[in-house]
């Protein structure tokens, strides 16, 4: 089963490539404080559908380049900025 993640597009400047940030909260192992963390994934967007600020769903795939290991499934919510 391939993993599916939901995140926000932070960059769409490159052709057919997105930079997606997945935010998460976790408890610090030693101090117990709730810490905000993020994971950055580079995803393949064949039709250049998504733009900066959009919430998207991505799925694991075979390596497509040095950094791209994910593919765009759908745009969950479009950005409200014009």
The quaternary state of the protein chains shown equals single chain
Looking at the overall shape, the CATH architecture is Beta Barrel
Q: Total strand count, please?
A: 5
CATH superfamily: Nucleic acid-binding proteins
Looking across the biggest beta sheet, what order are the strands in?
1-2-3-5-4
CATH class: Mainly Beta
Helix content: under 10%
Distance between the termini: 37 Å
Question: Which regions contain 5 or more consecutive residues with pLDDT less than 50?
Answer: none
Shape: globular
Spell out the helices and strands N to C.
Answer: EEEEE
Structural class: mainly beta
Overall radius of gyration: 14 Å
Write down the CATH topology: OB fold (Dihydrolipoamide Acetyltransferase, E2P)
How many H/I helical runs? 0
Q: Compute the average pLDDT.
A: 96
For the report, how would you describe the main beta sheet? 5 strands, mixed, barrel
% residues in beta strands = over 45%
